[in-house]
């Protein structure tokens, strides 16, 4: 069977200029309070996926001591692969090919950053994880793939998961097949090696009652700890002996995430302080403005984009197009698919143009691997990537790379950038000093 999104009435906003903060957050919650329940649809389709890992691949060397930390807190590296724990992960040195952040020079126009992010990264029968990884590589882009922890946990071991407020093994999404665990491991390895960001979408995808919005700080910590446990012990849990370790240490590389249904950010932000995370993409939504920090962590919300030639503003996620176009039904009227796809592309590009020719605030696009309304939202992203990532001064980056760039800018320049309205094209010498 297929899962169906929760029903919720969305509101439409007719202006993009910023009102007071409380109103923005309230509006965004109304738009997406139950929106993100769908990244798992690939699991419920006919299982035709075959493993991509070679049967001849071995787990690698026996576990070696983990590298020691330098005075800066970053691990030193001796040029060798260090297999960690049970052999599920390894340390292979600093990630290669990522953006080298530079502070803006006086009067310099900022790059136009665009971040494509994916909730519940799974290489299912639709092969969408590999498709977008390959598309990113083709267009010199990096993306953020939010991994759901139980996507590396076999269904036979589901009792190992104790979701906060839920019985052992319960989850609001399906557990993966063994073959999908294999293919997902392969895509995670390739995504990391190609410079993409691996974040977390946590585990059970619980929303609403007993979901993240109801969880205490300690319950969020439990969810995070279990995420790490599943991804660092997939070899023990699966029994796979022919799949090599992932080439990165999750404790180092996972520095942010997005909560299911965008719920529970206040307590989540308190919980992640002890993990050293640098960003969070769980905010219910905001206008296209330069990011700021919440509780010391970069806040990367979904954004309000002009839908239908600016008739109203909607959030930059596939579910919100689905809701406005087919009332949340994942199989709407096929006769309308071409127009809906065009409207989706036009809305993304209108949001891009508004800041590209204006404030240069980063554009955030969040999606799922899904086939709603004939796959039109995936086709729309394909067009947007090809259109925007090839433009001058555009950098299609991951959330981690954007956090790196923001961290090296002066506080004064960032504060002045935040005063700009989305379409405002300033005298950059008065903003960047």
UniProtKB/TrEMBL annotation:
InterPro entries: CE4, Glyco_hydro/deAcase_b/a-brl
Signal peptide: none
Domain of life of the organism encoding this protein: Bacteria
UniProt region (Disordered), positions on chain: 46-110
Low complexity bias: start-end ranges: 61-73
GO terms under biological process: carbohydrate metabolic process
TM spans (from-to): none
PANTHER family in UniProt: CHITIN DEACETYLASE-LIKE 4, PTHR45985
Protein name in UniProt: Lipoprotein
